[in-house]
């Protein structure tokens, strides 16, 4: 299949495909196109974004079945073969013979590359080692000075995952301020976000006027907080980590959208929690990815969805014992049956 045909066929599944590199498009045409067409025939759309627990379990199942077929004794060897040079040739031969790419992506309507990265995150034993010590932070700075952004090499030297060392370095690469935001920092943040949004609007100017008239109502507010490039914004602010920037921007938007009202004070605080629990329970969803957080924002006030997600997180952490080991639906059930009556009594 030639490149233009591949782009044209993939575009029905991935609208932004023409922004992807030619090499990646060729790989997707080989690994994903047939799968995407099969999913389309079943009425299943290709997904992006956060993986659901169901998808995570399907990845675990696919890996487990492939290990049984091949006799390879660990998922780490399959996904991090370069760590085992003595077994590398044998493992790669088995992966080719038994179609590892096809098996790993079985039953998951996503690009293979995203499934592979997710599997590596799930099964990397170096990915769950807790907080970095001061000694590790100093080593990370030293290794980065020597090797730049070669995160694979640095991760091997530190026995941490690629993602972990890259994100940690992003956090410590400059003097991050953890105190209250200064007026100057807040202005930098607002200018950085404005710059990003204006750039997006310039790109959207290429749309036809009819397309813009249909979309303006829907995206005017959404573009203020959805899918902003926080690492870029972090670099423009200079003194804050990207997560701090995101939280501060959410707080600014919340104050603007609620005209400065305190939503979570006194009886309003209790009523907001009650409303949130009831709406989540009524939705009867199995996974957090299935929740329309935008719709839920109107349950507790005209606020960004990130505000609602943060409130739900605090609710489950403070009220649900062993919440880390419970599914999303089990957490909501507990909140509805145990926490809700207590809140209503207080109210």
TrEMBL record:
Pfam families: Myb_DNA-bind_6 (PF13921). SMART domains: SANT (SM00717). It comes from the Eukaryota. One of its GO terms (cellular component) is nucleolus. InterPro entries: Homeodomain-like_sf, SANT/Myb, TTF1-like. One of its GO terms (biological process) is termination of RNA polymerase I transcription. Residues 124-172, 173-253 form the Myb-like domain. GO terms for molecular function: chromatin binding. This is TTF1 factor. The lineage of its organism: Eukaryota, Metazoa, Chordata, Craniata, Vertebrata.
